[in-house]
Amino acid sequence: MGQDQTKQQIEKGLHLYQSNQTEKALRVWMRVLEKSADPAGRFRVLGCLITAHAEMGRYKDMLKFAVVQIDTARELEDPDYLTESYLNLARSNEKLCEFQKTISYCKTCLNMQGTTVSLQRNGQVSLSMGNAFLGLSIFQKALECFEKALRYAHNNDDKMLECRVCCSLGNFYAQIKDYEKALFFPCKAAELVNDYGKGWSLKYRAMSQYHMAVAYRKLGRLADAMDCCEESMKIALQHGDRPLQALCLLCFADIHRSRKDVQTAIPRYDSSMSIMTEIGNRLGLIQVLLGVTKCWMIQKELDKALESIEKAQELAEGLGNKLGLLKLHCLCERIYRTKGQQRELRDHVVKFHECVEEMELYCGMCGESIGEKNNQLQALPCSHFFHLK
Fold first, then answer.
1. Where's the Rapsyn myristoylation/linker region N-terminal domain (predicted)?
2. How many CB atoms lie within 10 A of CB 50?
């Protein structure tokens, strides 16, 4: 297959993909990969396969194609191609919750500066790195990366990148419990979609609606949360976006739990858990297990709650997700207080405070811990944050 034919087949695949005929598109692209003798064409088709598998939640396949793409980039001996392939490798590892590897590949990208094309990719590299630091609960570094990504987005007038960074910032502030900002950033992302997103993939709209739903739920605005989550789920189902479906099911379950409707929440958690397991989103699984634990606690089934905690703790330790561990110690503390088991209670109080110290979640002004309850926060230029009050 020559250069022109390769180009035509790639375009044919893109057309099929955009009209939701994903499996047909994949078959076209795989044929190009087998038959094309044009390295640049092969590189591009690998990029298409990586994106498609990412959106379907087939992260292991995504990683496999990213590795092949690096070999193709080396064959082409072009620093821009190499940077792009390392970014895809970083992203694949981010999706598989291999956060240390993500950070390492992102650093490789930043050290391999080719031309202006590579420089424009720095924003995406910073975003991926920020998401990885957030997965490890290293909040100050995560915020530094997100702000850097936002600067790149503004400098290059890249509205899509800005939209993605705003969603990540929404997630960031939801985790450290500044719910005003957790809502502000996804609302900003939704505005960008409305103003500039006519030709964009619908996933940007779905993503911003999902993060708005999370913030609305945390603020106790459950009807608004339900509306946004339904909107997001509708798009996720249309597009066969399994990762987003899993997140929406988790959000639905959390909304029902907030309404104390455990009977409706549990099956939603189960559905979310089965997709999270299938795609390998271990960070998502920790969130699901936290929700399930709280349901058992509402029903006073404390032994079942401890079983869920044990599973979640194993995952959180494996990932190095310190915030997950902190929340689990906090739940254990409540359970053992209710059971009157003083020794276990003390053990978890100590571990809870160790987690707070490790994450440096203290306000530099008042010395109180950050992230215990909803509080407006202010970040300094050095990315340290403190209570606005």
1. 1-80
2. 24
Nearest CA to 88 out of 115, 111, 106, 72 is that of 106
Give 369's DSSP letter. B
Contact 66, 89 (CB under 8 A): yes
Contacts of 5 (CB under 8 A, 6+ apart): 36
> Residue 374: helix, strand or coil by DSSP?
coil
Give the model's pLDDT for residue 366.
Answer: 61
* Residue of 327, 318, 384, 364 lying closest to 136 (CA atoms): 318
Residue 210, token pair as written in the block:
């999902």
pTM of the model: 0.90
> What are the pLDDT digits (tens) for 97-135?
999 999 999 999 888 766 666 567 889 999 999 999 999
Over residues 210-244, the pLDDT tens digits come to 999 999 999 999 999 999 999 999 999 988 899 99
Nearest C-alpha neighbor of 258 from the set 223, 227, 230 = 223
Q: Looking at the predicted structure, is the pLDDT value of residue 86 above 70?
A: yes
Here the tokens at position 298 are 């509402």
End-to-end C-alpha distance for the chain, whole angstroms: 65
Whole-number Å distance between alpha carbons of 255 and 162: 28
Residue 275: how many other CB atoms lie within 10 Å: 21
Phi, psi of 117 (to 5 degrees): -60, -45
Helix, strand, or coil here: 238?
helix
Write phi, then psi, for 99 (nearest 5 degrees). -70, -35
